[in-house]
Each structure stands twice: as C-alpha cells, then as structure tokens.
C-alpha cells in the first residue's frame, strides 16, 4: 500500500521553530538609523586578535589630505553600493562594486575617495592581527 499524501500545503511546509537562538539572528542590511550625517561604524563581534564591523556610508569620504593608517590588518568587502579607495603609494584609484573585497595590511596608508550618495554603501570589515 502506498502512503496517502494530503493536498493541504500547510501540512507539508516546515514550520519555524522558536529556540533560544532565534533572538540572536539579525540582518546585515537592516537596523541602521534613518537619517545620517556621518558614517556609521557598528562592531558586530570582537575577539582578542580580531574585530568585525559593519559600516554604512552615504556619500562620505576621507577628508582631503588625510590618510587612514591602522595598526591592524583590514579585510573589507563591499556588500552594497559603491566606493573608491586610494592607497598612498599608488596613483590609481580602486573602484569597488558590490561583492568586491580586498586586504589592507597594517600601516598601509589609504583613504576613501568616494562613496555613493544616491544609495547607501554597506561594508563588512574584519580587522585582525
């Protein structure tokens, strides 16, 4: 005898299960302030030798003549939007599109030349030693 299957789709669909971890789930693209005058840096996770943060840019850039000189290495990925980076020892500007990532060694001077003003730019940055 073959099993009888119900045509009721609600019976066949998996139901979400509430667990102690349900409240821990967040969305990388949500939860930012509605109005921004400056970039938002939010630490997501931290350990002894690393820090993970998400960054929201809405047209900001490093002030003219200034360079970022960090003590830690930084691996960064552009999740949404657009940006342009410049390194002190390079003449070429690097254009970043969604999904592009790069590793910036510690004390490699760099600057953000441009971020998109028309749509938000979301970065994920891993700082590590």
- The total count of strands amounts to 8
Distance between the termini: 63 Å
Spatial order of the strands in the main sheet? 1-2-8-3-6
Helix content, binned percent: under 10%
Q: What kind of sheet is the major sheet?
A: 5 strands, antiparallel
* Mean residue pLDDT: 89
Can you tell me the overall shape? Answer: globular
**Any idea what the CATH superfamily is called?**
Jelly Rolls
Number of domains: 1
CATH topology name, in short, is Jelly Rolls
Strand content: 35-45%
Radius of gyration: 21 Å
CATH architecture classification name: Sandwich
Q: Structural class, please?
A: mainly beta
SSE string, helices as H and strands as E? HEEEEEEEE
Number of helical segments with 4 or more residues: 1
Overall CATH class: Mainly Beta
Q: Which regions are unreliable across 5 or more consecutive residues at pLDDT < 50? A: 1-6
Q: What's this model, at a glance?
A:
With 129 residues, the protein is mainly β.
What does the model show?
Helices cover 3% and strands 40% of the residues. It has a single domain (33-128), classed as Jelly Rolls (Sandwich), CATH 2.60.120. The radius of gyration is 21 Å and the shape is globular. The N and C termini lie far apart (63 Å). It has one helix spanning 9-12, and strands at residues 40-47, 50-57, 73-80, 83-87, 93-96, 101-104, 110-115, 121-128. A hairpin with a 2-residue loop joins strand 1 and strand 2 (50-57).
């Amino acid at each position: 005898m073959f099993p009888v299957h119900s045509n009721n789709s609600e019976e066949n669909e998996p139901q979400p299960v509430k667990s102690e971890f349900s409240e821990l789930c967040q969305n990388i693209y949500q939860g930012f302030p509605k109005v921004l005058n400056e970039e938002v840096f939010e630490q997501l996770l931290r350990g002894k030798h690393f820090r993970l943060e998400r960054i929201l840019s809405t047209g900001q850039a490093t002030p003219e003549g200034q360079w970022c000189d960090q003590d830690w290495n930084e691996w960064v990925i552009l999740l949404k939007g657009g940006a342009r980076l410049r390194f002190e020892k390079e003449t070429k500007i690097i254009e970043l599109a969604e999904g592009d990532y790069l590793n910036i060694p510690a004390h490699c001077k760099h600057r953000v030349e441009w971020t998109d003003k028309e749509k938000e730019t979301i970065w994920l940055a891993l700082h590590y030693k």
